User: Which sequence fits this backbone?
């Protein structure tokens, strides 16, 4: 149910609006300028600085977060569309047990260099692996194609996603066997 | 097989995980925009909207009336000097009398929020008298209009070797001539430029995303009129640099520092992506005229080159970038007769400066294209031709630098051929291309390079590095160097070097970000010099500490110091490794014995002799080498092209960390592939039109080739453990090898980079129609 607060009054420039949403499973109530994006709210109001701004135009993917189960660029989500949403950022996801294999694989495969794209890349990988248990090369390439990286040439990131998939599948299998 | 000495290394040469990986991956690493301070103001630059004009009036009044605006600063508000040029004094910090490119800042505002700053920037009024801009290197060279009163030539490097060049061509079996052009490349670090300045201790502290904190320190000191000691620069985690954060951040840091110093509040200045694309430096576009003569035996006997490089409106780093072009334009080959003129020219376009490769990928593209033309024309094998002309020990480069050591070029050529399975693939591709029913054409391309290590003759006075190592009483170690981690893996590689030298475990090491208050001026983090320079500076400090630790261990173990060995956290008896004292206990003992375990290290690059008049001598002390082979595929119907595979063989001396080295190569390949066939910066009448990532398109996961990297380790005597640099060589051969592959697939040597699908389609269509005509006849 998008844009709950999307009314003419709320859209007056610089007006503040009250929004209420779930962030990493916790409820957040906050007043923000309605011109803010979800990215601004996360970074400047809530000090969740793991989500990065690389372009502010939805082109680089550094601000990738999970919203209501799908991945979005936080810079393209206006404050007025945030209420009622279930948002997950790198701070929340990286603390989850099922993200550990991804984080470990990113470390082991040296899938980060300058690191600025990395939280977004991890978010996209987490979403990808929640969607496909054993993704093909094409699915990985497609799944991460919205996230730009200027350092790595992507090879080690793709290797890390594959390694994480193997680990996750192995862990699930072990759990089943037990 | 490992020699006895090599086998002693326990950390160097090993696949050690990045020491900074975890924090970056979980989003905990602190980049400059993640910092916030109480009462912090936000700054925004106000930039020229025309490429050339005289400033008649700047009116701040409307902006100052806006609620929340703390200050609007123009040239007259600068407390120190209004200059920012890093090498030549031709650039103001804020334009005063004239603007010389669209995007040149003439004012900077500070306000309580980013939104107010943005709005205020739009309210600063300027009146210009527009002038006709100089937009091409040819127009600049003619000097009909002067960008600066002194004229349009920024620099002119000459290389003169051997006989009169025209006579030399007279002796050639065959002579080839071609002119190439190449566009800008934008660094496109994912983190835009930015800094935060804080008034502190009657001086100023600046946090930021920098490659060269010491340049920033100098620029801030000049702009504010403060002694260097009152200016402290603290490095944040850097979200990519690639040369783009060499000198350029000084411009922003000086502005933010000025606002902070006068307004007495913290000031943050972060560029948005569009502004970053518009105002920050780029790789130089060039027009390159090449003439190459070869003998009947397939040796290059003469080379004549004229390069016109678009330096943009100000010198910035052009004089040093183009010096490098002048050393590398002939490639890693032995050529007896050479005449080269590398000319940097002012235009009314964005200033061009440092970018990974530093003026070399352009000329390598031209030179290697010439070699491709020659090999195709004479039916010569591209590897054998390169080998026949290659630099080797005892041979001399185009600047008559006789190579004395560490030259693995020929091995890289052999390895690249073998590892790419060139001969098998060539046969397969010939067969594929002969089949008219196939929708695509496939091609292979080769390129070889050399790259002078460190800053060389033109920058020797900057070529030093300091370090500081402190061992705490619990055995943990603090390292601080003057070169920065910007993603390349410096912290990890340097921690490995320190760990090896100190005999401590790598986990004991804690790396402090660069702080100009701790380490001495270490020059810039450029020229692929960090491993060698900071590595050697760390070795200097570590060796002093090791002596003290060895003495303490000898005392504890009751053996002679020369019987003590150290590795991985243990100092042990060389005759009996079970008899040891731990690094931790040694640190504790030294603490109680009042033996100081804190040392500075310092290293100076080997001195070189070079004559700038003739362009002859030793421009650099040693070189890295590489050979790359590309496989490309182009669509006959649409001209679309992709690079399927690249094989890169690099001689970088000792590989300190194989995993990080291959990561560096993969990244360089991606950036090179983008440069070769994708990234097209469009500039119209002096205005950059591609101000976003959907118009300036860089490679995604779908565009990058499979990369196979192999290493040749011809050790350098001056490198730490024999290392040389890799940061830039990783990109340098890529463009030339990709374009050669595309050219070989299309049967046409492409004379402009980037090679876009439109151009490929045009070439293929022309060929088709001429083939059709010949069939009709």
Assistant:
């Amino acid at each position: 149910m998008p844009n709950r607060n999307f009314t003419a009054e709320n859209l007056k420039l610089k007006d503040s609006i009250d929004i209420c949403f779930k962030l990493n499973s916790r409820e957040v109530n906050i007043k923000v300028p309605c011109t803010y994006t979800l990215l601004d709210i996360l970074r400047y109001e809530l000090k969740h600085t793991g989500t990065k701004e690389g372009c502010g135009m939805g082109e680089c993917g550094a601000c990738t977060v999970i919203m209501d189960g799908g991945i979005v660029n936080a810079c393209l989500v206006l404050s007025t569309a945030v209420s009622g949403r279930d948002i997950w950022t790198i701070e929340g996801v990286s603390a989850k047990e099922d993200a550990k294999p991804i984080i470990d694989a990113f470390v082991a495969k040296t899938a980060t260099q300058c690191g600025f794209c990395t939280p977004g890349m991890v978010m996209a990988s987490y979403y990808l692996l929640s969607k496909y248990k054993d993704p093909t090369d094409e699915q990985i390439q497609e799944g991460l194609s919205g996230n730009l990286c200027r350092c790595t040439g992507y090879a080690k990131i793709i290797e890390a996603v594959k390694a994480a998939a193997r680990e996750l599948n192995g862990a699930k299998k072990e759990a089943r066997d037990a | 097989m490992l020699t006895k000495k090599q086998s002693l290394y326990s950390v160097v040469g090993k696949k050690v995980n990045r020491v900074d990986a975890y924090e970056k991956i979980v989003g905990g690493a602190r980049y400059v925009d993640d910092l916030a301070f109480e009462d912090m103001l936000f700054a925004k630059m106000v930039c020229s909207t025309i490429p050339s004009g005289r400033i008649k009036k700047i009116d701040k009044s409307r902006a100052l009336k806006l609620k929340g605006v703390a200050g609007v600063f123009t040239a007259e508000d600068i407390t120190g000097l209004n200059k920012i040029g890093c090498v030549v004094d031709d650039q103001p910090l804020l334009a005063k009398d004239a603007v010389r490119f669209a995007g040149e800042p003439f004012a900077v505002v500070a306000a309580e929020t980013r939104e107010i700053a943005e709005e205020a920037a739009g309210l600063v009024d300027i009146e210009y008298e527009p002038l006709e801009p100089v937009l091409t290197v040819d127009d600049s060279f003619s000097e009909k209009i002067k960008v600066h009163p002194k004229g349009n030539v920024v620099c002119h490097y000459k290389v003169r070797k051997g006989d009169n060049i025209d006579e030399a061509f007279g002796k050639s079996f065959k002579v080839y001539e071609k002119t190439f052009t190449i566009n800008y490349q934008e660094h496109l670090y994912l983190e835009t430029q930015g800094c935060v300045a804080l008034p502190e201790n009657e001086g100023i502290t600046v946090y930021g995303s920098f490659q060269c904190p010491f340049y920033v320190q100098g620029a801030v000191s000049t702009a504010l009129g403060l002694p260097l000691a009152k200016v402290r620069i603290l490095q944040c985690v850097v979200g990519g640099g690639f040369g783009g954060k060499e000198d350029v951040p000084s411009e922003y840091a000086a502005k933010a520092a000025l606002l902070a110093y006068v307004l007495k509040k913290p000031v943050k200045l972060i560029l948005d992506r569009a502004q970053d694309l518009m105002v920050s430096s780029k790789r130089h576009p060039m027009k390159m005229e090449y003439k190459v003569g070869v003998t009947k035996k397939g040796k290059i006997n003469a080379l004549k080159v004229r390069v016109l490089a678009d330096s943009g409106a100000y010198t910035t780093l052009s004089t040093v970038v183009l010096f490098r072009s002048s050393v590398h334009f002939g490639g890693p080959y032995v050529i007896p007769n050479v005449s080269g003129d590398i000319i940097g020219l002012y235009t009314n376009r964005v200033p061009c400066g440092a970018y990974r490769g530093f003026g070399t990928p352009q000329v390598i593209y031209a030179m290697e294209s010439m070699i491709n033309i020659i090999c195709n024309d004479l039916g010569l094998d591209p590897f054998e031709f390169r080998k026949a002309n290659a630099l080797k020990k005892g041979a001399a480069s185009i600047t008559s630098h006789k190579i004395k050591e560490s030259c693995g070029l020929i091995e890289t050529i052999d390895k690249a051929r073998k590892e790419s399975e060139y001969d098998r693939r060539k046969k397969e591709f010939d067969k594929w291309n002969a089949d008219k029913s196939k929708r695509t054409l496939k091609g292979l391309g080769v390129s070889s390079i050399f790259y002078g290590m460190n800053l060389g003759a033109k920058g020797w006075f900057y070529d030093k590095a300091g370090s500081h190592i402190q061992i705490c009483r619990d055995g943990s170690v603090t390292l601080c160097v003057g070169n920065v981690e910007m993603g390349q893996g410096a912290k990890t590689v340097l921690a490995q070097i320190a760990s090896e030298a100190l005999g401590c475990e790598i986990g004991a090491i804690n790396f402090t970000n660069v702080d100009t208050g701790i380490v001495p001026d270490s020059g810039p983090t450029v020229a692929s010099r960090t491993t060698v320079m900071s590595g050697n500076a760390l070795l200097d400090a570590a060796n002093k500490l090791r002596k003290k630790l060895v003495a303490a261990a000898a005392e504890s173990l009751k053996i002679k110091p020369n019987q003590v060995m150290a590795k991985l956290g243990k100092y042990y008896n060389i005759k009996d490794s079970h008899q040891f004292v731990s690094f931790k206990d040694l640190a504790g003992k030294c603490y109680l014995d009042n033996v100081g375990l804190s040392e500075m290290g310092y290293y100076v690059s080997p001195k070189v002799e070079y004559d700038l008049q003739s362009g002859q001598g030793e421009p650099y002390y040693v070189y890295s080498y590489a050979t790359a082979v590309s496989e490309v595929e182009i669509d006959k119907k649409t001209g679309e092209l992709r690079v399927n595979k690249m094989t890169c063989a690099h001689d970088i001396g000792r590989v300190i960390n194989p995993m990080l080295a291959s990561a560096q190569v993969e990244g360089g390949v991606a950036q090179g592939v983008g440069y070769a066939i994708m990234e097209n910066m469009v500039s119209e009448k002096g205005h950059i039109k591609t101000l976003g990532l959907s118009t300036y398109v860089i490679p995604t996961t779908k565009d990058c080739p499979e990369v196979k990297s192999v290493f040749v380790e011809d050790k350098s005597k001056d490198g730490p453990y024999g290392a040389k640099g890799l940061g830039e060589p990783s990109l340098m051969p890529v463009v030339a090898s990709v374009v050669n592959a595309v050219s070989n697939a299309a049967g046409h040597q492409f004379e402009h980079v980037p090679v876009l699908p439109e151009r490929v389609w045009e070439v293929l269509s022309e060929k088709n129609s001429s083939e059709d005509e010949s069939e009709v006849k």
Notes: DSSP finds 19 helices and 31 strands in chain B. Residues 376 and 382 of chain B are 8 Å apart (CA to CA).
